[in-house]
Amino acid sequence: MKLITARALLLTLLAMIMPSELQAQDHPKLILTKDGVERIRMNLGQVPLFDASVRRAQIQVDAEIALGIDTPIPEDYSGGYTHERHKLNFAVAQKAGALYQILDDEKYAVYVRDMLFQYEAMYKDLPVHPKPRSYARGKLFWQCLNDSNWLLYMAQAYDAIYDFLSEEERQRLNQNLFRPFADFISIGNPQFYNRIHNHSTWGNAAVGMIGLVMDDEELIKRALYGIQDDGLEVGLKDNDGGFIKVEGQKEGFLANLEEPFSPDGYYTEGPYYQRYAMYPFLIFALAMDHVKPELKVFEHKNGVLLKAVNALLNLSDAAGNFFPLNDAQKGMSYFSSSLVTAVDIAYHYGDKNPQLLSVADKQGEVLLDQSGLSVAMDIRDFKTKPFSKNSVNFSDGAEGTEGGVAVLRYGDEDLALVFKYAAQGLSHGHYDKLSYSLYDKDDEIVQDYGLVRFVNIEQKGGGNYLKENNTWAKQTIAHNTLVQNQTSHFDGKYEIGSQHHSQLNFFDASRTDIKIVSARESNAYPGTVINRTMAIIKPEKFATALVVDIMKVESKSNNQYDLPFYFMGQVLKTNYAYEYPATLLPLGDSNGYQHLYLEGKGKPLSDTTQLNWLVKGKFYTMTSATNADDDLLFTRVGANDPEFNLRRDAAFILRRKDIDNTLFASVIEPHGRYSPISELSMNPNSNISEFKVLHDSKDYTAVRIEDNNGQESILFIVNRNISADKRHHLKINGQKYSWQGPYNLTSN
Q1: Other CB atoms within 10 Å distance of the CB of residue 217
Q2: Residue 57 is assigned to a structural domain of this protein
Q3: Considering 129, 197, 348, 428, which one is annotated as catalytic?
Q4: 674 is annotated as an active-site residue
Q5: Do 14 and 86 share a domain, yes or no?
Q6: pTM
Q7: CA dist., res. 468 & res. 450, Å (int)
Q8: 428 an active-site residue?
Q9: Series of mean pLDDT values for 10-residue runs along the chain (748 residues)
Q10: Element containing residue 737 per DSSP (H, E)
């Protein structure tokens, strides 16, 4: 009887002890795992890139340890001391946790523990952040978005030192810090948490990550599926004018994985925000893969997350800078920490594409986890292959049916043309249907402005979006596309623009002499249909590749049309005369025109108009087919900008007035170089002698390009019946032309 009692007592004690012991054995489990840590320790000192990444983290964290922990009472917008201090804290804490696991040095665990308890002491009585601008105010930061950043990183730090802490310490942190924090950014702010947006992705992932650490199934479920019965009204909007809730809206991490991504991996807010959102997407997906592999998050929507990494890399110029579509800060590139994460995870947990290794090698840093070790080992073992960027067409929309973005590339990224015919892009979208930008390697030749914001520079509006983002950057005139009657697409109204997208006519990058894309926009202006076809062509006998731009406009009424080109560099010459005003005045008073100074105005002297310019030692000429009544305008950004929030960028605008149907046609030609060292100029003048519209009807459009050597090339565009199998026949000036498909390029 005593034996039975003793055995029962032992079983009871084991039942009480084992859950916590087993739980302790599970950590770390989010990003780092026990098996992963063991493998890393076995390879320390043998993998140069990984070892260098560890040393870099050590230097940063050791310096912060020496300075001491500072968790100031929040008071600043982005860029202010308290904002930047709390941002640095969570980044350093995450690295310190990883170093504790990798180096088995308790000083890093002590540092994280002490920081967490400073936050625990603060958070219990912390009010909402004093800065009122956000639709969802945080506590540590001025918006819940940044609070979610903090929690996502701190969850990783907590996981790394979990076994180092006592049970009492864990309970204090869970009850006083982590659970209240997760509740605040979710059920306390459903307008932030329960929407389809990059903001919500961060919130969902943060709540899910801390839920995984705490083994809190309620939080994990809230992360994956959102908040039920959130009480939000359909039609509610955020500070940027984007919808918080729409009819039939889904919520949670999985919904944010399904809705904004196309099947190709394109993210509807554009690459700048795709880059930002990829971190929570991939980090939480990885944690779920480790803790709850049965949910197969990486496989969700046919593995779209890993496809998205490839899409992002292809949406960059030759130097790795992301194309500035929608709200985007120029200079953001795949060297950002979020892309280090994306490349490492995509390589290790994907198909181990050796091309990703070349990107990681350029980044010069890897994650301090098993994926980073895997990448670094394979770079060491010479498994790297160059990342190949080709012409590509990405669809937009959850089903891939809401327009898209095409990138046409020639040579080794000698030319890259980015053509946008996408959906609105949620609240970060611009009114820029059928717009484009042009790159020569990593140099902008014809630019997209991007956003009006100085990110994390406190002197400029607290590091946030400035009013000129709405009055200028989002407006149609700020882009290289058609403006009708000096009004923006959809009258600049998000609720209208969000309902529409452009339609692809055709895309073809199969030929060596031409890469081409064509799309149609029929909703931007009621009663007006715009078809734009853009191509990079390289006829055999032409000296260089050329960019051809054909825009066909059909309207039920007479209108004024403006077609701007935001060229970079220095004007050299024109083949027409223009007047330069003594006093600079705005070109208009609204819809972005109030920010454009009129610097010059002229008229065509022939049906072929040329603008020649120099940028970064390279010569370019745009040759346009023009009418005698066209206005040729030089403009510059900067009017009505007393705080100097806008760059002073130049544009050439082709204006056509009082007409219903018309055709704009231009060709851009790179053609020479200038060396400031040798002071030699080579081929500074255009090689094109004539650019002419040969034919334009409802069915067909044809343009002819002739160079100074008498070489001729004709591009034919089919305006209707664009099937790839359809045969076409056209007679121009007694000459018969026949071809199959939606276009044809001929050369003599």
Answers
A1: 10
A2: no
A3: 428
A4: no
A5: no
A6: 0.93
A7: 12
A8: yes
A9: 38 38 66 97 98 98 98 96 98 98 98 98 96 96 98 98 98 98 98 95 98 97 95 88 88 96 97 97 97 94 95 97 97 97 97 97 98 98 97 98 98 96 95 98 97 95 96 98 98 96 98 97 98 96 95 98 98 96 97 98 95 98 97 98 98 98 98 96 95 96 95 96 95 95 94
A10: strand 735-740
